[in-house]
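Final report, Chapter 2: Outcomes

The project's central promise was a pipeline that accepts a single protein chain and returns its three-dimensional structure in a standardized token representation, suitable for archiving and comparison. That pipeline is now operational. To close this chapter, we reproduce one record exactly as it appears in the project archive, with the input sequence first and the structure output second.
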Amino acid sequence: MFHRKIAAVLTVGLTAASFVLPLAAQAETAMPFALDWKFEGPAAPYFVALDKGYFAAEDLKVEISEGAGSLDAIPKVATGAFPVGFADINSLMRFLDQNPGAPVTAVMMVYDKPPFAVIGRKSLGVTTPADLPGKVLGAPPPDGAWAQFPIFAAENGIDMSTITVEPVGFPVREPMLAEGKVASITGFSFTSTLNLKRLGVPMDDISTILMADHGVALYGNAVIVNTDFAKANPAAVTGFIRAVAKGWKDSIADPAAAVDALIARNPAADPALETERLTMATADDVLTDYVKEHGIGGVDPARMEKAIEQTKSVYTFTNPADAALYFDPSYLPTDGSLMLQ
């Protein structure tokens, strides 16, 4: 039933069974990894893990694919087209509510502080949340930040009917703001802010309003897995998480070298800009005080419950909301490899 429901969302020739079958004839377990977005700075740690042999050391064969938004990997992993992906956990909650029993869950929190943001231009009158009513907001429908905007609006007393929302595609989102066709956009802070900089918008004209700094207690993107695959290959999932943590640790220690691994896959990218993007993501979203103390990957149960309650304030769950459905910490390594410093 589940596969029929989302067949229109994703057409693939692979099935979950292709990953769950024992790979006795191979030395490595195949774990194609579906990213949320393009090969930009924050993707560098995964290429570091690949190039330094961290995945290979766990007997994993990993290929990394670009994504088309922070919701994109969820159906890919749920159908088994990819055993592992990177996606917004809040969107995962809603997906599982709408597709009960879908074999997908999060197993490693990466963006402890989500990069969901409203990015505006001061010259167009947008500096604070209170400036949004009466103006045009550009929002790509598949954007993770847009998906959480109703919570941000509710927390800041904004009547969404007072904002003109312009559905825009990802390729034209920042250009439209740069050209003044919209006054603000939704997006990930490190993506949209630096894309505007690349387009020639002065940094002192850009207002980056992080939703997490304005009442939104949600988590961000996490590594997600197909649960059928995970049950059949628990050691592989733990090994994947350990390799990713090592990739992030090395990238934090030497972001320029990490971006070199990225540029090898995306030669058209600007190394300086992507290094800045990676550094911004690290400082604002990954290496939080909680992660410094506890390591990358886990979640605080109390905060997770608060995130669910915030989601309930703008979304009516059809089925009981249960944190255990959305995040499974049992695959996290316990050997200290999650500590980033």
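Archive annotation: Residues 234-253 form the longest helix (20 residues).
This record, like all others produced under the grant, will remain available to the consortium after the project formally closes.
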